[in-house]
Amino acid sequence: MLEAMKGSxxxxxxxxxxxxxxxxxxxxxxxxxxxLVTATIGTSTAWLVTAYNFPGRRLLEWSLxxxxxxxxxxxxxxxxxxxxxxxxVQGSIRWILGYETLRQFRLPDxxxxxxxxxxxxxVLYPYVYIPTRAMFLTQSGNLVDAARTLGVSxxxxxxxxxxxxxxxxxxxxxxxxxxxxxxxxGAAEFLGVRTLTVSIYTTWITRxxxxxxxxIALALLMVVLALVGLERFARRQQRYATDARRTRGxxxxxxxxxxxxxxxxxxxxxxxxxxxxxxxxxxxxxWKRYQFAGLSPRILDExxxxxxxxALATAATVGFGLVVAYTNRVRPGRLSAMSLRISxxxxxxxxxxxxxxxxxxxxxxxxxxxxxxxxWFGVSTGLLFMGSGAALVYALTMRFLxxxxxxxxxxxxxxxLSLDHASRTLGQSTQGTFRHVHLPLSxxxxxxxxxxxxxxxxxxxxxxxxxxxxxVETFATHLYGEAARGTYEEASIAALAIVAISILxxxxxxxxxxxxxxxxxxxxxxxxxxxxxxx
Length: 535
Known about the structure:
single chain; MetI-like fold; two-stranded parallel ribbon; globular
């Protein structure tokens, strides 16, 4: 706020007349489009694998998670080359149709608002698919039977019973997908969509106008707050409860051969577009690049930088998350609950907004320390925080603290309080109870949270792009630079490495299925939590 007020008297007027109208309209259209696409694909596929039984359903059930491994800027990077007018796809179509020139046949340009909406939708739909499928799995079959006895057809059960009950899960999934859309800077810029996030980046980096970027960041923050408020308002009167001891799961309907084949194709289409095609493209281009020039030292340096920054940020994030979550358990109250809620606020803020806030604070602290050291000791400390990468680690910690604190808190909540009382009765202190009881029983939750944070730190582009030290490149920033120059093949190895790392949490998520009673009891005794709760 203070930095935004430093701009010239006419800066707000300039922003309102030139930048903000276009950026705000593009952002709203993009959010509406991505919300509609993710809701349609995520909800329909979740119902498909939950309500019907057909050949390939179990494979489809976990493969629908695979697009989570492809960051938004990588899907744009891949399809810009795949669907290029002189690329393999359009070239093959012209060859099949007997055309020889671009004037005779050319597909619509993927660099458009429609292209951006579709590509982001096919990558982000798992945010809706995961909670909606979990909600469908826990819905009672008794409600469906009651609806059928009242004359509701099998097809209408989805619209009149299942979907209304799953509305909170759908709303949460859409909200998460839209947050990721707002955080995106690479895909929107590559595809020619001028969102508020892209405007912040170009105003800051291209025009070196930090006050102007701060003012646009305030506008973006208002959009984020509006989204969060709208999501909470939509669920304000949603209440649903059931007695799990007297209900049974939703019975699956057997699909015939033709219908089963259609269901398999319909469910596999999002996986094909969102993961398989980009993965094949990246693998092919990476192999070509490796055969041509081998594995360059630059890639190895970027791997070290990427892993080091992500590991430091993960350690800090998990440490702070553990403190916040454990304090909420052993000292429950208004203050600890408020601390837990505050820790989740960073995830809602896009990376560019977090980066601006960190830059303003730590750059000022850098100048103060340098001036003090020079006056007192005659030594210049330089950019102590900005130049060492501490600012980037701090920004990533703020950004993903919600994942750490939420996942660890969910794991601790599954440990009965009776174990705490028994430990204290046997003479253990609070620290001893943590070491001997809570830590062993929640280690799976902590490990899952650490993995999710690490992968998100590797994929994070906006904050890394804006706060990385000079002459330091990560996989994400290397890919962004090559794509901006149009040399897609140069970054194929880095893009493939990001996808390979990002597939790790997808493997964990794929193991989360139906919770049979015996497995649930064993999981509870071991202190484990389903990975989707850590999200």
